[in-house]
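Morning. Coffee machine broken again, so started the prediction first thing and wrote up yesterday's gels while waiting. Chain of 584 residues, entered below exactly as on the submission form.
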Amino acid sequence: MLSVGLVVFLVMSGLVGTMGSSMKDTSGMRETEEINEGGDDDPREVKPTSETEEVKSLADSPWPMFGHDVKHASVSHYNTTHVDGTKKLSFSTGGAVSSSPAVGSNATIYVGSNDNRLYAINPDGTEEWSFSTGGDVVSSSALGSDGTIYVGSSDYNLYAINPDGTERWNFSTDDSSGWDGIVSSPAIDNNGTIYFGSDDYKLYAVNPDGSERWHFTTAYPVRSSPAIGDDGTIYFGSNDGYFYALYPNGTEKWNFRTEASIETSSPALDSNGNIYFSTIYERIYCLNSDGKEKWHSQIGSGNAGSSPSIGKDGTVYIGSSNNKLYAFNSDGTEKWNFSTGGNVCSSPTIGSEGTIYTGSDDYNLYAINPDGSEKWNFSTGGAVSSSVAVGGDGTIYVGSNDYNLYSFTGSDNINLTAHGDGWNFVSTEYIPATRSLVDILNDTDHGIEGSYDKLMYYEASTDTWRTYKVDRASHYNDLESWDRTMGIWIHMTHDATLTITGYPPEITNITLEPGWNMVGYPSKTDLVAEKTLPAEVTKIGVFDDSQEYNIKYIYDLGNYTMKPNEGYWVYNRADYAVEWSVEY
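Came back before lunch.
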């Protein structure tokens, strides 16, 4: 929300009253050296402080910073087609979570909260550590290649945190302005320099050791998170109504004057070097790399604060205070808009396959197909202004003002029945989020606790039956895990549906020992047994509750279709093990 002082400034100041490109006179404001044009010592080329200094760039992880990378296009490298809105987990903090998550190379999730803490959360939803700052953590983390986590706080400090949660250093900005501290999310360039804005009216460049490299002063707070072009140019907006491009040494390259403040919208860059951003009066701009306007469009009349994202096909997505997410073609024409029930402050995130994710003040997270139709939505207990981050397995993460971080994945629903003698012979087509059998069966949201009493599995490699019984002492239960290669016998006492959360494999290799093997079928595709099984397999056993031991034997493999979620006995006639490759 706008502070009162900013509203007064926007109404009374002539600074933001006119739109257009301007080479504004920043004398008395800019506190960086003037550039020299060309020459061997061109200060636009910023090098590490010494030849032996280790370069600490942005981490190579699934989602290392706000907008995914320094261009802020917000496109994941990972496919999220399988994500169907099934909640994988929620993690509770002591305050609203408007900070956008980051995901490390080890799948740790980092997110800030308005309880003054940054949290490191394990993939299973348990807390690894939390780091206490002196204020709300609205800024999103940026992860360095050496594991350092950088994040700002409303206490006006940028913190560098070691992977174990201890403080490496902090960098203090001027807290005398009386605004909201550091809202801007940091960006890390290829030399390890950290760039971020502060409400003390400055954009900072800080070395990896925490020393200041330079700062650039504007006329009002800098809450926009900087983006960095291929040539090292730093782009950001300011509440003073100007959009800036700086050389890597901090001197001004050009500026563009807008009709209103650029409060929290961060720029995004496309593959052609075009720059996209919006203002608080919700006009989205597209500028050429030289600072000249290509087009602009009005998307609302309030102050949603969404940042633009750019799809692989050049489509530009941005949220608005008129309760809509907009999609624009690269020429500025509207492609479609999607209506929600509240302001769309959340900046869109795009899966590698094109699904768009955005939150709304109507308390919902939305998944939207590339054609603008709704794929699914999930209702939280508060406004969703956080932006989605995508993990390496396609799991998506987002914060909510209900104090929680949520994660969502796909689900494999297995219908189980207690009719007849209660036995079911099943498998999962997914890679489960956990291999623990008890955790899968007794999951609070998705399990079947109270509806089953016994499970059995034959392990062909050791010629051993393994079992799990609900009321038996744990040391007697030797069936402890379940994965997609296994067929499982489950005895049900009541009808129920078991939902296994996880993600689909691309291919699964199952070792078939000589003789009988008890296996799963980890595929979403129905296939004739003869066409998928190795030539060494001459017969299979399938579930049939009218037969003895609930098994019917199939010898004509060209006349039986294998299906997802079925368990199978598979007979390998060879005297050696063979590999069965199952495509999902």
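The mean pLDDT is 91. Going to sketch it on the whiteboard this afternoon.
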